[in-house]
UniProtKB/TrEMBL annotation:
Domain of life: Bacteria
Domain Nudix hydrolase: 26-227
Protein name: NUDIX domain-containing protein
CDD domains, per database record: NUDIX_AcylCoAdiphos_Nudt19
Cofactors required: Mn(2+); Mg(2+)
Assigned keywords, A-Z: Hydrolase, Magnesium, Manganese, Metal-binding
Alphabetized InterPro entries for the sequence: NUDIX_hydrolase-like_dom_sf, NUDIX_hydrolase_dom, NUDT19
GO MF annotation terms: hydrolase activity, acting on acid anhydrides, in phosphorus-containing anhydrides; metal ion binding
Organism expressing this protein natively: Sinosporangium album
Length: 274
């Protein structure tokens, strides 16, 4: 595989890192969720053009772990943080933060909440001014997710998530994330909405249509998103995705020099940048 050509500052950063003149920025723990609905379609957001990271890219809901996501006070139902740690190859505290961030960020960026009043229930409707006020408070970090769940008398439903992948931002980037990918079904009765913020457009697309649009240059997909959609294109139903066997391993694209040109080698040879 020839990889993706690097240009501009990324070339000099890559050479400096390879020569030991520059230390890579530490990657922050993050989580992202592939939200699915029957048909099989995925929920995608287009990041605003002025965003410092992945500007203009179509992405899944997600973001960095808030240290409070690791709070032992988070009301929880489903596989424990220790069990999730075994799946995600992380300690229990880190695993809790990742799962909590996945659920919190999904609510912040789509209005969909993977939580219920108990281990066998899920919220049916998250619309209304009161829900919106709390969503905004979560975004500006004036409200922790544990506090939000406590106010509502809810528990996080970790069983509604499925671990799907693990990608680490290349070392040449100056903003780096150590991101676990999850899949989840849109809960019955809930619906996504255009919640604004970091995105200027949201859409539901089948994996095949999203890939075709990327190939035609209509939309931009980052390598992890492209690869994940390629994997999902082999499934016809949400239940099939959630029942799929997955072994989680980390992918870290690497900068290499090929015939005098710096290139980023992407795991998965079917990725091509439009």
């Amino acid at each position: 595989m020839e990889g993706v050509p690097l240009a501009g500052e990324f070339v000099s950063r890559a050479r400096d890192i390879m020569a030991g003149r520059l230390a890579p920025v530490a990657a922050r723990d993050a989580a992202t969720v592939v939200l699915l609905r029957e048909g099989l379609e995925v929920y995608l957001l287009r990041r605003r053009a002025e965003m410092a990271f992945a500007a203009g890219a179509y992405v899944f809901p997600g973001g960095s772990v808030d240290e409070r996501d690791k709070d032992h006070g988070v009301a929880w139902a489903g596989p424990s943080p220790r069990e999730w740690g075994d799946v995600l190859h992380a300690d229990a505290k880190t695993a809790q933060g990742l799962v909590c961030a996945a659920v919190r960020e999904t609510f912040e960026e789509s209005g969909v909440l993977l939580a219920g009043s108990g281990p066998d229930s899920v919220v049916a409707d998250t619309t209304g001014d009161d829900w919106e006020a709390e969503r905004l408070a979560l975004i500006d970090r004036s409200l922790s997710f544990a506090e939000f769940l406590d106010r509502r008398g809810l528990v996080l439903r970790s069983d509604l998530l499925k671990a799907w992948g693990h990608w680490i931002t290349p070392e040449v980037e100056d903003r780096r994330f150590d991101t676990r990918f999850f899949a989840a079904a849109l809960p019955p009765g809930q619906r996504t909405r255009d919640v604004g913020g970091e995105a200027d457009k949201v859409t539901w697309l089948s994996p095949a249509e999203a890939l075709a649009r990327a190939e035609d240059g209509e939309i931009y997909l980052m390598p992890p998103t492209f690869t994940t959609l390629s994997e999902l294109s082999g499934y016809a139903k949400v239940a099939e995705v959630l029942a799929a066997e997955r072994t989680i391993k980390a992918f870290l694209p690497q900068a290499v020099e090929i015939d005098g040109e710096m290139r980023l080698i992407i795991p998965g040879e079917d990725y091509r940048r439009p």
